[in-house]
Amino acid sequence: MEELTDRRQTVLGLVVRQYIATATPVGSKTIVEQYGLDVSPATIRNEMAYLEEQGYLTHPHTSAGRVPTEKGYRYFVERLMGEAELPLAEQRTIRHQFHQARLDLEQWMRLAAAVLARTAHSTSLVAAPTVAQCRFKHLELIAAHGSRVLLVLVLQEGMVKQKMLTLAHPVTQEELNRTANRLNDLFTSLSTDQIMTSSYRLTLLEEQVSNLVTEIMQEAETRSSGEIYRDGLLNIFRQPEFSEIENVRQIIRILEEQSLLEAILTEVLNSSGVQVIIGGEGRWDELSECSVVLAPYGEVGRAVGALGVLGPMRMRYGRAISTVRYVANLLSDLIYELYG
To answer: What pTM did the predictor assign?
Structure first.
């Protein structure tokens, strides 16, 4: 991007901020009066005309005011907005919500989606972390009815899985406790493959339980990569840009098309920090009226995922970026604690 003069940067920044706040094309007189500039509306009008010639602003045919283009928003985000942080009170509230939640990865995903949508006033997307391989943490066996046994498996990734196991004959709770304790001693911190290839001498009951454990872990590994959690759909429908039914359909198509969401979210896994996609940027036609703020989270080599918010290009970028960054860092800390 070219380097704009200080005054042109000021004008562009004010137009973007005013348009984000009002969704109404911004005129030179509004800029002078609203922000108390010590120049005439004609001077501002000339600067706005230059910015329009260079592709930073445009104007609807029915209005003399200007609105930002994708290029204008991009310049604003990269050069003019500055660093934004969530207020400390909001940070404490969000952190408290996560620490009140159970040590359960799925609950964290749902909570992250809800927090992102509410705090950024946007639609949220949270891709569950891809787990290279699950690791065993703890097992409990509980006698149910007759020869049926409830198996409760806790994985280091924070997942808790339950399954019924039917034995050939009834077994006492005491024997189930002994079996669970031995397998806990043998399998703690082992991956699925390590359990499957282990050469431990197991009793028939221990082998049955071990087989079910590895089956559950394999299912968890398969499912962990495809789940995308969403929240806050109404937030985007309240925006004036999406008052027309065709724009509503476009957003619904984006949110329902799993392959598109996976492509967008997967791209951010190969980057670091917060990424801002404005208007599809020539890569995704479906996002032509939208902006997406994304960030990776997790621990590389163990479990990594991506999260973000979707909204109109007239997005409160400072709020969205600070929220996405904070929740991504918080989830990364929680996942690190799980593995630690």
So the answer is: 0.77
